[in-house]
Amino acid sequence: MRATVVVPVLKQARSRSAPIEGAATRSPESRLDEATGLAEAIDLDVVNGAIVPISEPRPATLLGTGKIEEIKAQLDEHDSGLVIVDHPLTPVQQRNLEKEWNAKVIDRTGLILEIFGRRASTKEGTLQVDLAHLNYQKGRLVRSWTHLERQRGGGGFMGGPGETQIEADRRLLQDRIIKLERELEQVVRTRQLHRAKRKKVPHPIVALVGYTNAGKSTLFNRITGAGVLAEDMLFATLDPTLRRMKLPHGRTVILSDTVGFISDLPTHLVAAFRATLEEVLEADLILHVRDMSDADNQAQSADVMRILNDLGIDDAEGARRIVEVWNKIDRLEPETHDAMVQKVAGAENVVAVSAISGEGIDHLMQEISKRLSGVMTATTIKLPLGKLALLPWLYEHSIVDGREDNEDGTVTLDVRLAESEAAELERRMGDGPKPQKEDWE
């Protein structure tokens, strides 16, 4: 379908958002590029784009009459039957604009929902998208079937009209929403069970987050060897993916690839995807992937941090759990590339990489090991003959720095373990013959 993208720029809104870090750096041109990319992600043919300054939004149409007529002429010129307005629209505004332009109109929320609907491939993803879509549609029912008004209710002349078609539709939507919410409650319980199982075999969890198209899935594939869909498009990945991976010192961790974030993400979408985003909350380490080749990466980073704050990860916790991964440095000019690498070399919690070329990946893996080893304790343990079966478990769940096979058949190991794994080892050592006190150091 031939589509036109309209980006309203509200002068008052810009001045109000200026105090928010990074908000003022997002240019109208970058918003137009992003909205065009969103449209192209669902195979729309964007034939025209327009940036429309608005001094004061109109309650009925958002845009002024002059701009509406100007865009109407552009629609006729480009034979465009769909208008994407990169701004939230009220149901009244959407309906009035459709009448004025004689074309289908969707706002930013509707476009994102459409993309999510195309990308959802699992039952969980489909449930979440359906729930968000129904909540969005519930307030946008129009009285298209008033002639189908049902017979009068009650007795005598005091009974008002029976249930109208719009009321019936709204009731059916609400029934469907309740059904989906119940199914999603089951999804939440299932995820909690999965997390509980992972905690029994306590591999640390590393979660990838970032603005959409920052390169999370490409990075995920680079360091795990997985075959997750990774394309140069917005929201290429929707459903979360988890894979085991080995760190340089042999420790096993679980890496989680999550849905990309985006500015002005609808609140009911965040609510619908909370079951998915809880994977981030449970992570021991969060890798915030940023596209450093994008001129608006600072604003994108602020949008991601704002959503993480909404999920419950405050600044203090973020400083402890988040490592910034400056991705796509292969796209930078040589001078900019060298300056960025030099800047990162002296910074904490920041790693510069290229998921495509592999540059910096080794450094990233070392940083992950370093951050996760921060909660490790080093100890020396002597395994008696009756506990040699623990050797495979120790090699999988700890970092073995040294081993000595003794003449009496026992084995002495220098190991580093996380707190939870040290507790699990103590429990396993307590089953059966216990080592002597001198066996521990």
TrEMBL record:
UniProt GO cellular component terms: cytoplasm
Positions that bind Mg(2+): S217, T237
PROSITE patterns: G_HFLX
Residue ranges of coiled coil: 163-197
Keywords in alphabetical order: Coiled coil, Cytoplasm, GTP-binding, Magnesium, Metal-binding, Nucleotide-binding
Keyword Transferase: no
Entry annotated with the keyword Cytoplasm: yes
Main location: cytoplasm
Subunit comment: Monomer. Associates with the 50S ribosomal subunit.
Cofactor dependence: Mg(2+)
Name of the protein: GTPase HflX
Subcellular location: Cytoplasm
Job description of the protein: GTPase that associates with the 50S ribosomal subunit and may have a role during protein synthesis or ribosome biogenesis.
Pfam families: GTP-bdg_M, GTP-bdg_N, HflX_C, MMR_HSR1
A single MF term (Gene Ontology): GTPase activity
Species of origin: Rhizobium mongolense USDA 1844
Ranges for region Disordered: 422-441
UniProt family annotation: Belongs to the TRAFAC class OBG-HflX-like GTPase superfamily. HflX GTPase family.
Annotated positions binding GTP: 210-217, 235-239, 257-260, 327-330
Domain Hflx-type G: 204-376
InterPro entries xrefs: G_HFLX_dom (IPR030394), GTP-bd (IPR006073), GTP-bd_M (IPR032305), GTPase_HflX (IPR016496), GTPase_HflX_N (IPR025121), GTPase_HflX_N_sf (IPR042108), HflX_C (IPR045498), P-loop_NTPase (IPR027417)
CDD domains: HflX (cd01878)
